[in-house]
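job 3f2a | input accepted
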Amino acid sequence: MTKVLIVDDDERNVRILREILGDEFDLSYAIDGEHALSVVEVFRPDIILLDIMMPGISGIEVCKKIKSSLANKNIKVILVSGMSMIEDRIIGYESGADDYVVKPFDDGELLAKVRVYARLKFAEEVDELKTAFISLITHETRTPFNIIMGNASMLVKMEEDEDKRSGLQDIYIAADMLHKKIEKILFFSGLVTQEDIDKRPCSIFEAYETALASLGLNESQLKRVTLSDDCDDVIKADPVMLQKLLEYLIDNALRYTDAEVSVCVLPDEQNSDYCLIQVKDQGKGLPEHELINLFSAFHKEDLLSHTEGLGISLALCKRIVELHDGAISARNLEDGGFIINVHLPVEHIQ
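job 3f2a | predicted structure (350 res):
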């Protein structure tokens, strides 16, 4: 049951809140700010209904103290006050509060808000658990994967029987594929929470060459990928992210065609402070209804017939582009094939 801490020095207000919430939530109470801070450590509430005007420490200061603690950062704080001016609300939000309710409040609306924040906190905790689990699994599987792949590679070279050598090669390829997928999930989980990146002038050609090397393409695949760079400026980007962006876009295009994949870098005709990176393939394109979720992580149109791929590469591309204040879009070409357009800021060279 969701835990709600009511902090108010007025017994009548506490009684009203108890009548509204008591049947649905596990409640605890505090009569002032100091008392509230001590109750938080023991009761571990999910949500705090916090009066602002109290003797001793104000609700604003209590909110700041709670939100400054890493252990309490996910607690949802709803300030309850008779002060209704917009300036008062702003002060409340700046203290870290998640919402602000003005007295007298509507019983139904308050109950609805508490329910919403209960669901939100649960969802956030599940997301954090997933991220922690993914990180743990990734770190714990690195050594076993390295052992499997290292020994499989060695045995491939030693084995003279062609059928056995082929089987060992399959083991190596499968382990390498699974390892890369897990690494990609971990990379995505880190990007989701990342806000700031170190952008610097980057050569699109160098990023392109590094991306191809990272993909480990065979000679036939390399011949199918071409780069046309008609932009004199360099990209303002995180070099690793730029390389990963090109890597995922090229790999995605190669999956859907046996023909040529072209990477074009052009001046952005709509904005001179940006360049346009186009990745085109000559595949069959996508059904229009699938384009809606193209950049959504882990989205698969038909999970039962889905055979490979996490549906995460293009979601990673979208997040990388967002972190660079750019834009990404995709469409089917009229004469067949598919194109992804990426707009990224450039560093003008004088």
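job 3f2a | Residues 125-193 form one domain.
job 3f2a | closed
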